[in-house]
Amino acid sequence: MEPAPSRLVHTPCQLSPCRQYPKPCPCHMGPQPDPGRTIMRDPKMPYRVLVVEDEVLVGLDLMMQLEDAGFTCIGPAPTVASAMKLVATETPDFAVLDANLGGISPVAVAEDLRDRGVPFLYASGYDERYIRDNLPEAPLLQKPIQIPSLLAHINDRLAAV
Question: Rounded CA gap, 152 and 145, in Å?
Answer without folding.
Answer: 12
